[in-house]
Amino acid sequence: MTLLSVRNLSLSIGRHPILSDVSFDIGEGQIFGLVGESGSGKSMTALALMGLAPASARVRGTAQFGGIDLLAQTERQMTRLRGRDIGMIFQEPMTALNPMKTIGDQVAETLLVHRAVSRAATRTDAQAVAAEKLARVGLPTDRFPLSLYPHELSGGQRQRVAIAMAIALRPRLLIADEPTTALDVTTQAQILDLLRGLAADEGLALLLITHDLAVVADMARQLAVMQGGRIVETGATEPLFRAPRQDYTRRLLRAAEHRPARRPPARSTDSSAPLLSVEGAVRDYILPRPSAFAPHPLLRAVDRVSFSIRPGESLGLVGESGCGKSTLTRAILGLDPLQGGAIRLGQAPVTAGRTMPAALRARMQVVFQDPYGSFNPRHRVSRLVAEPFHLTGRPPDADRRIAAALEEVGLSAADRHKYIHEFSGGQRQRIAIARALIIRPDLIVLDEAVSALDVRVRAQVLDLLARLQESHGLAYLFISHDLSVVRAVTDRVLVMQSGRIVEEGATEDVFADPRHDYTRRLIAAAPKIPETWKEDADADAD
Amino acid sequence: MKASLYLGLALALAALLAAAASLIWTPHDVTALSIADKLKPPSAGHWLGTDHFGRDIASMLMAGARTSIAVALVAVGIGMGFGVPLGLLAAARHGSIVDEAVMRGNDLIFAFPSLVIAILITAVFGPSAVNAILAIGIFNIPVFARVARGGALSLWTLDFIRAAEVAGKGPARISAEHILPNIASLLIVQGTIQFSLGILAEAGLSYVGLGAQPPTPSWGRMLAEAQTMVTLAPHVAIFPGLAIVLTVFGLNLLGDGLRDRLDPRLRART
Amino acid sequence: MQRFLLRRLVSLALSLLAASLAIFLVIEVVPGDPASYMLGLNASPETVAALRDQLGLNAAPPARYLAWLGGMIRGDFGISYTYKVPVADLVLQRLQVSLPLALYALALTAMLAFPAGLVAAARRGRAADAAVMGATQLGIALPNFWFAMLLVLVFSLHWQVFPAGGFPGWDSGLGAGIAALTLPAVALALPQAAILARVLRSALIETEGQDYIRTARAKGLTRGQTMLRHALRNAMIPVMTILGMQFSFLLAGAIIIENVFYLPGLGRLIFQAITQRDLIVVESVVMILVFAVILVTFLVDLAYAAIDPRLRRRA
What we know:
The complex is a heterotrimer of chains A (542), B (270) and C (315). With 542 residues, chain A is an alpha/beta fold. In chain A, 37% of the residues lie in helices and 25% in strands. The radius of gyration of chain A is 26 Å and the shape is globular. Chain B has nine helices and no strands. The two termini of chain B are 23 Å apart. Helix content of chain C is 80%, strand content 0%. Chain C is globular. Chain C folds into two domains: 2-74, no CATH class; 87-314, MetI-like fold, CATH 1.10.3720. Chain C has 13 helices and no strands. Chain C has helices spanning 2-29, 34-39, 45-55, 61-73, 87-122, 127-141, 144-158, 174-208, 211-218, 223-261, 266-275, 279-307, 309-314. The longest helix of chain C is centred in the last third of the chain and has 39 residues, at 223-261. Chains in contact: A-B, A-C, B-C. Chain B binds chain C through residues 104, 107-108, 110-113, 115-116, 119-125, 196, 200, 203-204, 207-209, 220, 223, 226-227, 230-231, 234, 237-238, 240-241, 244-249, 252-253, 256, and chain C through 15, 18-19, 22-23, 26-27, 30-31, 37, 137-138, 140-146, 149-150, 152-153, 157, 245, 248-249, 251-253, 255-256, 259-260, 270-271, 273-274, 279, 282, 286, 289-290, 293-294, 297.
């Protein structure tokens, strides 16, 4: 039985068409995946169905849902449907809950708003149902009382509260807009399990919106691929993965599994002196006092970490948020002092701030995650890329070298006269790489450098990094939460948990045969496109 | 929204031009007393009428604009000159004892409204335009320190600052090269607001006799002198008040318009 | 919560100490000899010496500061030089006018600002919003003392509904007292209400863009329900900050307005004291004004904690 049938949904804001002729069907109790890159219109599709599109948007088309057309409802009629027949959860659990209200009240609110159907006449009734629903999503009242506030919960727990709110009235459809994108991989696996279970137990249909093909492969029976406001391809998941009919889908699938061509790690360099060595590094944070006169407690963010990087090597560092990898990175870059141990670059010690000589700093550069925050919006590209010359002194041929660096990363020399807002996210990461490259460092720290990029752009940037590594003999410290990327581009890998390196080894060995329990859990939690689905696509591609 | 920006600009420029023109020309001599012509309503000879000494009100308003604008402008200068570096320093040393000291100092000054500062200063040094400038200027320091610190703190979390640190740049250089240009629009908007508040404050202080002393012309004192005659000749009280309202209104519209235009959050992230 | 309260109390005490020290330095140390300043140029050395003795000025400044501080804690603010009565009595008497005036004005401010801000935010971009925004922009530009003069012109001289000035005292009845304070309170409140309405509007619009507002709408709440149940409470943080600052502006602004209406409040007292060079009174009244400002800041901090659970538990 079809639950939702969307036909020719189009949406425009002003003169800009955002969605054009979007059509798809979701069956009752079915998990339906809607995938696409950022800006493809997948979130806007969901908001339009909920009647929550921006006021300035013009919506056309139909969406039959249990005998009524969602797109033809008045706002008042929609308020009765929302929360009762259709629930929705969003990407950012940290901000999706009202910080001023208890989780019990927020779940109970769904019941009280729809008093007529919920049969929860009083606040007490509603609270009782709320407790039941929170228990259903894995937050039993004995450990998570209704009186808790959102800030007392972790991101994964908050997403559970959001789910409890959305399913409190047993809606027939739940729309989940990137529900796990902001979560760590192990938490993501738990939330996806929960959603899968709810769909099975409560007969709930799930519209799962995501950019992550592996998540869809893992969850959805049916899916639709969106690009530029249109549905490119739709069908049952497995056949679609095995034999995509559209070129765009094929490119998307290939990019998701892309492994840049890299020369095998040279075993012969094993004996050469390390480029960077970290020996027993310790980094503590001072926490606020628990009571007025108690001493400040310390948080050990990095706990006796030791490793080394050889020249030309690509070393991965994986771990979930809060494991200490950012803190460790700051220390390696000479931005924060260590409380114990030492970091050496070549033979010289890395120290924080002014005490580190410029010539030493010049041997190491960095590329950050956020393509938007990485550049001063007031400066032209030529000045942005030239910033590291502060360490070496501006060479006489600086302008030529800026142009060369831009060309090396696949941009044009003329781009140096532009401002950063004229570039896309992928181009900005290329500019960030050009900035790191311009003083010819020995080591580049890649701090989640491809995490914010769409799959196809990510594949291109990974290729670029591999090519530059080969041509310049660069060493990379590749920090990421994304296991598949780390697996594709590193020679060796470190797994970090709670400030400690729990496992270290050749990348393939660690992924094929993880020895530490935490590594095993990480690898098991990461969603994967089944190996057997890929053969067809690969065969098709070659 | 654009229309209000231009209206604001026009009003602010009108006040500025009147003040500048009064340096070389006013319709009548502002110091010339003529008791015979006192409290005359607006006419061809005296566009806005005359006051109780027979002085030309239009001329006094032009000269008064000079005082108002000069006091407010210097007070904004004091506020920016001390406040912005303090705010940048506090942000660069966020969480340190320096930051704490700057913020507590700010709170302390905030506890003294500008009128109370003026009262303290005049109680000891006597009333004058300079003391009015000092009182308003001191009050402006924490305002600018806060705006600069707030803007700088959100910038310090961005990765381009980290990139500058990796390029070996110290906090002072980063503040000047990366932070200041990016909070300039915030400071300009705040500057317009404080400028208009300064004009209001100057008028208030002059009105109660704590600001510019005779014979320096001043809008606030014109109103104080008009108060007893308000029933006889309402125009004596109405025109100086309108001058203040229109100037401040214009500056506020200008500030709002600039904010809409300069606020990076309102600009597309393309 | 107790720790939060304790920390706030300590910071309150420290602020008061710092402020009193600043006032003491400006009034008693910077001008050199307060006694000869108070008596003027023509005073004989004997009179100056007598006053110095009477004021205890022969002691070293630190000792004098401590004595002044100790006196204030006991409620002893010294004896006014011109009125020859305890300053505490003078201030208490004048506060009976100034405090009700400030509270009256604050109430008017909130009563005007909340509906205006809510309507403007709810009808954002429409005619009602534009009207409110235009009116508030004018309201902010209004010097309150000039507005007061216009009010007197219209409501006292033309229509004769409210007295033009003076204060009959609370003994002559609550109605007469309130009538005498109405025009001053309106003059004080209108510009402040304009500011507050704008702050409330932008705070509401800011919160309306938050993710949890979208979550609430997805639950089936109407726009109006989300605004009242979710946005308003979150928007109260900036609104309370401004309201707190406005109380001190109203108290200080009353100094000017009291002059327009010849009200026997703290403002009139301080101006008389300045012209008569009665430094003892100036010092005490300034200290009381600053105390009020710091106390209100403290209360606003407590109110933050009351409405924001994040502050309550973490602090």
